[in-house]
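Q: My labmate handed me this sequence with no annotations at all. I'd like to see what the chain might look like in three dimensions before we decide whether it's worth expressing. Could you predict it?
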Amino acid sequence: QVQLTESGGGLVQAGGSLRLACLGSGFDFSRFLMSWYRQAPGKEREMVAVISAGGDYPNYADFVKGRFTISRDNAKNTLYLEMNSLKPEDTGTYYCKAIFTPNVYWGQGTQVTVSP
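A: Here is what I predict for the chain of 116 residues:
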């Protein structure tokens, strides 16, 4: 049974930091392209960051460059998102996504709320 389980969300003040984790199971995590998405209330889901299967080619949306860092530990089947200098507009539900065509898996999400 495939599972992606996010954790690490919470309430933080603007300027603060959070570290999200996404634990994968039931599939060969090390072969999958992994990414973080987020969705704010009333808005479409948007890509935040993506990382290659080997972990050596991270890519970021412009609105998080220089503040967020994506990484992975394939030995632990875990994807991370280090979020610094958080802004109220970073508020939303954060999801991890695993892709190895044609398979696509999503987690259930973890809530991040940034207060002014």
